TrEMBL record:
Phylogenetic lineage: Bacteria, Pseudomonadati, Pseudomonadota, Betaproteobacteria, Burkholderiales
Protein name: Pyridoxamine 5'-phosphate oxidase N-terminal domain-containing protein
Organism of derivation: Tibeticola sediminis
Domain Pyridoxamine 5'-phosphate oxidase N-terminal per the UniProt entry, residue ranges: 15-148
Pfam families, alphabetized: PNPOx_N
Signal peptide coordinates: none
Family annotation (InterPro entries): HutZ (IPR014419), Pyridox_Oxase_N (IPR011576), Split_barrel_FMN-bd (IPR012349)
Superkingdom assignment: Bacteria
Cellular component aspect of the GO annotation: cytoplasm
Amino acid sequence: MSATEPSSHLPRLHRALGDLLRAQRVAALGTLDAQDPTQPFVSMVPYALLPDGAGFVIHVSGLAPHTANLQAAPRAALMVMASEPETGPVHALPRVSIDVRAETPVPHSPAWERARDAYLARFPEAEPMTALADFRFVTLSPTRARQVAGFGAARTVEADELAAVLAYAAAAPAP
């Protein structure tokens, strides 16, 4: 197996989760409202996978409410789900809700460069936006997840298992 070939020894549900995270490019981001922390706030964010299973990176505007929310309370959640089929039931769509901790790397630090490289590898068209002063990279470190792989196939995925899944997803070629 080469360094870029996905691990074939991962359990089936781990591979399914990694494939889902690699195939989709956007997630719902759940944060707590910075003005009223009792109120949830959900937005859509494009995401990229950090190498070696470290987590996710998003690129957000300082003008966006979710950015202020993450600064006020760095605990958040991402939800990624399979695309809806044109016909048929939607209740068993594969999906995952991931608890994360947000951190904003210092611009031009090694962590920032790593986040930028991962993000631009997935979204090269976003390169001009990385020069805008009000935009920043935010890394999202997963703490656990709840995976639904289909009807009757739900499970909790702890951080160590999730790191293996993310490493698999980051190393495998895009579907």
